[in-house]
Amino acid sequence: MPDAISRIPLVLVLLPLVGAFGVVGAARFGDRWRSRMANAITFATLIVALWQFYLVQQGTVLVYVLEGFMEFGLRWRVDFVGAIFSVVVAAVWFLATVFAREYMAHEHSQTRFFGFWTFTLGATLGVFVAGDLFSLFLFFEAMTFAAYVLVIHEEDRESLRAGNIYLYMSVAGGLALLAVIFLLQFVVGATGFQPALHLIIEQGINPWLVVIVLIGGFGVKAGMIPLHIWLPKAHPVAPAPASAVLSAIMIKTGAYGFLRMLFVVLSVPDGDPLFAFQQNFGYMFIWIGAITMFVGAIMGILNDSMKKVLAYSSISQMGYILFALGSGVMLGSRGAFGFAGAWMHMINHAFFKSFLFLLAGAVFLHTGELDLDKLGGLRKQMPFAMGFFLIAAASITGIPGFNGYVSKILIHEAILEAYHLLEWPSLLWLERIFVVTGGLTAAYISKIWIKAFFGKARNDWSHVKDLSTSHIRVFGTYTAIVVTIGVFAQRMVDRLVIPAASLMPFEQGDLAHVGHVPFWGSHELMSPIISYAIAAAVLLLLWKFGKHIVVPRWLSVEYLVYKQLYNGSLGIIRFLIHLRENWIPKNMLTGRRIWRRVDDAAQETKAQIRRWKPPKWEPPRWEPARWGSAIKPITKDDLLRKIEATRAREKERVQLWRTKEGEITKWIQRARRDWQEKEARFEDRIYDVVDGVPRKPQRPEEERSLDERLRRTLEGITRRKFNPYWTTKNLGFDTWIVAMVIALILFVFLLAR
Question: Global pTM?
Fold first, then answer.
C-alpha cells in the first residue's frame, strides 16, 4: 500500500481538527466567511470520507501508526465497518452545518460554537477509524470535552447544569474505559481489537467484571438505562444542530465500542467451553436493550416537550441497537441477523433522528416554542415542515418504503431466529416487548405530529413563515436518503450489511440467509399495521386519561440510584474525617514535628483571638483652621429663615401632588366608566350567542348564586391534596418501569433457564 494512501484516515481526522482554527480565524473577516469556512471544511471532510470508502470497498484496509505517542502510539485502521460509518458521520455533520447557518444567525458566541463544532467532528471521526482501544479512548475523551461546549452554549442555569451532568457521566465512563485499557495491556500486552477472553480467564480475572466495566465505559455514551440521565437533560438545552449530532452520531460511539468489543475481543468459537459465558452476557444485553427501548418509549409518550420526546426517543432507539447486538452475541457464529440489524439501525437512526431534531429546530426557529401544549395549527403556516416531519415519522416508525423499516425487520428476524434455535420461552416474551415498543414509538411520534400541526392554534401564528430555501434543500436531501434506503432495501443489505458482517466470525450460510430476507412479504408487512394499531390505542388512552397520570418524583432513577450514591459518598467522607480526627494517631500519617507545628499554630491563633479586644470609640475632635475658626456661629434669625424656606418648599410639593392626584382620580373614574360600558356590551353579545335573543344582565341574586356554586366547585377541587412533585413534568416513571421490568426479567429468567 502506498504511504500516501495509508495516511487518508489521518487526513480525515486532522482536516476538521485543524480546520476548527481556520473557522475561528475566518470569523475576523465576518460572519459570512466563518459560515463559508465551516461549510467548506465539513464538505471537504465528506469528500475524503467518500474517497476512503471507495478504497476500502475495493478490498483495501487502511492502516497507519503514529509511533511514540504517549508510549502507546496512535493507530488508525479502517475496514468496511469504520469506512461506512465515517461517511454517515460526515454526511450528517455537513447537512447539520448547512442548517446551522440560518439557525445560529441570531445566537451569541457563534465563533466559539462553530469552532468547537468542527473540532468535535474530527474527534468523532477519530473514534470510528481508531485501530485500537487506546486511540479510541483518546478521541472519545476529546469528543466529550468538545461537545460539552456545544451543550452549554446558552450559558444559562439549566444548560450549565445539564452540561455538568453530561460531563460528570462521560468522565466516569471514560475512567471505566481506561480501566479496560489497562486490563488488556496487562493481560494481552496490547490494546488492539483482538480476541482476549481466554487470556483474561488465564490471568484469574472474572470476565463478568470486564463486562460490567465495559458497560460503564460505553453504556454512558450509548444512553442505556440507568446510565441515561444526561441525555434527556442535555438535548433540550443544546441548540438544534448540536442536539442532532449528539443524538444521531455521538451516542453511536458507545454502540460502536460495544460492537467492536463484543463481537471481537470477548468473542469465542461456538464449540469453546467459554461459549456458555458468551451466551449469558449476550442474553443480558438483550434484556438491557429491551428495558432501554421500552422505558425510553414510555418516557417519550409522557413528555410534552418536542426535544425532550425526541431525546427519550434516542434512548429507546439505542435500546433497539443493544437488543440486536445481544441477540447476535448470544448466537455466536449464527448471529449474523443480530449484527445486521444493529449495524443497519445505527446507520438508519443517524439519518432519521438528525432529520427529526433539525425539524424540531426549524419549528422553534419560526415559532419560538417547543412545548406541544402551546403549539398547534401550524399546518397552514408551515406545510413543508409538516410534510417533512411526516416522512421522518414514517422512517422512525418503520413504514415500508422508508429506512427504519429495513433495520427493524432485521432486528425482528434476529430475535425470532434466536427463539427458534434456542427455544427459550423468555425470548418469545422479548419479541412481544419489541412489537409493543414499536407501537409506543408510533404513538409518541404521532403525538408530536398531531399536536404541533393539527388541532386548534393556541397562539397567533399569522407571522410564522415556512421553511427557507436552504432548509428545504437540507430536508429534501434527508428525504432522498431515507426513501432510497427503504425502497432499495435488499440492495442496501447486499451493499452495506453483508460486507460489514463478513468481517465478523459468522457462518457463510447465515450470511446468505441475511441476504434473502423477504422484506415485502405479508408477515413483514403486518408489523407496521400492528404498530399503528397499538399506537391508536395508546393515543386514545392518553386523550382520555393523560391528564390524570401523575408519577412521584421519588421513583426516578436520579432519586433512587444517583442521589443515594451521592449521600452514601458524603457519609463515607464524613466517616473518614471523623476517623482521622478521633482514632488515627497523628504520627501514622505524617511526622510528629509537622503535627506539633500545626497544633502550636492553631493554639497561638486561638490565644490571639481571645486576647483581641475592639478599640474604644472616641468622638472626633475639632481643630481650628489655620486662618481662623472653622466653625461659624448660627444665630436665631438664620435658623428661622431656614425653617421658613423649608416650609415653603414642602407647601409647593404638597400642592403639586394634590393637583396630580386629582388628575389621576379623574382618569381612573373615566377608565372605570369605559370598562363598565364595554363589559355590558360584551355580556349582551354573550347572551345573544347563547340564547339567540337579547337578554338583560343577571340580577344580583343570580350573580350571588353563581358565585356560590363557583366557590363550592373550587373548594371541592382544592380539597384534594396537591403535591407539586407528583406531576408528569418531573418524570420519574422510568424507574417504576425499570423496577417492574427487572422483576419480570428475574422471574422469566428463572423459568427459561
Answer: 0.74
